[in-house]
Amino acid sequence: xxxxxxxxxxxxxxxxxxxxxSCSPISGHRSVSWYQQTPGQGLQFLFEYFSxxxxxxxxxxxxxxxxxxxxxxxxMNVSTxxxxxxxxxxxxxxxxxxxxxxxxxGAGSRLTVL
Amino acid sequence: xxxxxxxxxxxSVSEGTPVLLRCNYSSSYSPSLFWYVQHPNKGLQLLLKxxxxxxxxxxxxxxxxxFKKSETSFHLTKPSAHMSDAAEYFCVVSPPNGGYQKxxxxxxxxxxxxx
Lengths: 114, 115
Prior knowledge:
- The complex is a heterodimer of chains A (114) and B (115).
- Chain A is an all-beta fold and 114 residues long.
- Helices cover 0% and strands 53% of the residues of chain A.
- Chain A contains no helices and 11 strands.
- The N and C termini of chain A lie far apart (37 Å).
- The mean pLDDT of chain A is 93.
- Chain B is globular, with a radius of gyration of 14 Å.
- Helices cover 0% and strands 54% of the residues of chain B.
- Classes of the chains: A mainly beta (114), B mainly beta (115).
- The A-B interface holds A 4, 33, 35, 42-43, 45, 48, 55-56, 58, 90, 92, 96-108, 110 and B 32, 34, 36, 41-46, 49, 51, 90, 92, 94-105, 107-108.
């Protein structure tokens, strides 16, 4: 079956712009989580969605937001981009949230902010 | 509450020698523990997971990890390193099913394999 699909894979934006990233989970997976990965901060949890509800949110400013649709696809949005938002954004899906469920990751969306 | 500490940010081994990547965890409940691997410019891939069954867990590509509750450790080992093992490895702790604690990732260990 198809894996986790993230689009776009690469994008370049300028400061002040906004960006929307998309994540299509594995069919049947209802939990989607997002992570920001940078060389300095490592992997940081952004948010987790299950059945269209946000279950958890990491320590990021309100410029970072997300949502999940009824088909479990998820989007995250970053407004008023800053240089420090340059990162690899990873999405992961699982059948259920937390616990012993294995996270299946997408290849990521690499955002560069100029 | 839960946390995970990867004790080495970088590990360098010669090809054919054993690999040891160390991970300690802290949890107020019985956690699930995972090791993931990330090759350059790729997403993370599951190596193995522990979910309160056997304490010695075998994963893909010859890796295994042992859950030691008394030491709160979950170290990753491989008897003989291969060049293709060069990657970054993440130890992860997860709350019980349905728990509202988020999944917590370690800071990662970069494994270098010297030919």
